[in-house]
Design a protein that fits this description.
374 residues, five-stranded mixed β-sheet, 14 helices
């Protein structure tokens, strides 16, 4: 991009022109669900109500390492309790942007967990299992997610059929403008569900090609052969959909390692080269990578990159990547150039981390027009 200001202005104009069209679009997203407790780690407590935070993950690591062979006390202060999980956060953001959203996942069983009630007012929600629980320790340079995942074993094709409905799932899967499956890492039977969809539902699809989005969600703990199978299944969906594979920086390096790629330099140029190689080996329509301060994507059109409206002191970081995904997918649904799709992605994420709220299309366009500096 030679003129970032002009590109942002054009992106804002395209968004505002498409606002009514966005309201006619639909998304079908799943399959996880968590109750997130956003926590701050106390560094120094000045009084019963005043304390300073441990600012970085590295500082917490130093404190824990110093306690080896001894012991230590770590105080956590609850900052916020909210809906969590890659799927609900992404779906909630898509609904805020104006799409008609259907969600299926583990949001409470037999009754919806109260933390998802507001989400259920924005979207058509179907729950098939109890939610997972996450303690999200937030720092200025990232977050540490401590999860309790037992209930995610209940996310199976059998439970989707038994606790929701096969025909309704088939209808949403076959008609939504955007289909999104996220958090593969934490859902033990996600690959089996994908294999079933490829075998039983995809051969019956007809009509125009639609967009399908996948987010692996930190696959470090999964076996290499499991990740290779997941990548093969994702590529198989490209026969039926325009597939987007979304990765953060850490996930990109993990996927690269499983694909046998040498580790590149930790620079924008190195990550772009890695993105090209991942796309060559997993030739879906688009591979998109989103580090903290910028984002890039690779498709048949080539590679594109965009800087984000980075802030060193975000109000919230948990869910930033999911908001990027929603904004990027919106750009793809609208047929915007890759450079502008990246801007709608980093803009949606940037708005969220500053305000704690998901933007609508007008607010997103406003951020592109009045780009924040720090």
């Amino acid at each position: 991009m030679t003129n970032l200001t002009e590109t942002r202005r054009q992106g804002a104009t395209r968004l505002l022109e498409a606002a009514a069209r966005v309201g006619r679009m639909s998304a079908f997203v799943g399959l996880d669900g968590f109750v997130d407790e956003i926590l701050h780690v106390v560094d120094k407590r000045e009084s019963a109500t005043v304390f300073t935070r441990v600012p970085t993950i590295a500082r917490l690591a130093e404190r824990l390492a110093a306690a080896a062979g001894k012991s230590t006390n770590i105080e956590l202060v609850s900052h916020l309790r909210k809906l969590g999980g890659n799927g609900p956060i992404m779906a909630n953001a898509l609904a805020a942007l104006g799409l008609k959203v259907t969600y299926v996942g583990n949001l409470g069983w037999p009754n919806l967990h109260p933390v998802f009630q507001e989400f259920a007012g924005r979207a058509e929600v179907h729950s098939i299992a109890p939610p997972g629980l996450t303690d999200a320790l937030e720092f200025h340079d990232g977050k540490v997610m401590v999860g309790k995942h037992e209930s995610l074993k209940e996310i199976t094709w059998e439970n989707i059929i038994r606790r929701w409905d096969r025909q309704q799932f088939t209808t949403r899967f076959g008609t939504a403008d955007l289909v999104g499956f996220v958090n593969w890492t934490m859902i033990p039977y996600m690959s089996d569900i994908w294999a079933t969809l490829l075998q039983e539902l995809c051969p019956t699809l007809n009509g125009a090609r639609r967009v399908m989005f996948f987010d692996l969600a930190d696959p470090e703990k999964r076996l290499p052969e499991d990740l290779r199978r997941a990548l093969d299944l994702i590529l198989a969906f490209q026969k039926h959909f325009d597939v987007i594979l979304g990765l953060n920086e850490k996930e990109a390096f993990e996927v690269g390692a499983v694909l046998g790629l040498p580790e590149p330099a930790h620079t924008p140029e190195g990550l772009t080269a890695l993105g090209r190689e991942i796309h060559r080996r997993v030739p879906v329509q688009t591979v998109v990578l989103h580090p903290v301060t910028y984002a890039l994507c690779v498709s048949a059109r080539g590679a594109a990159r965009a800087e984000g409206p980075f802030t060193p002191k975000p109000l919230i970081t948990t869910g930033a990547g999911d908001h990027f995904n929603s904004g990027f997918c919106l750009g793809k649904l609208l047929g915007l150039p890759d450079e502008v799709c990246l801007l709608t992605g980093v803009g949606t994420s940037g708005y969220y981390v500053r305000t704690g709220q998901s933007p609508n299309v007008t607010q997103l366009a406003g951020l592109l027009q009045d780009w924040p500096e720090g």
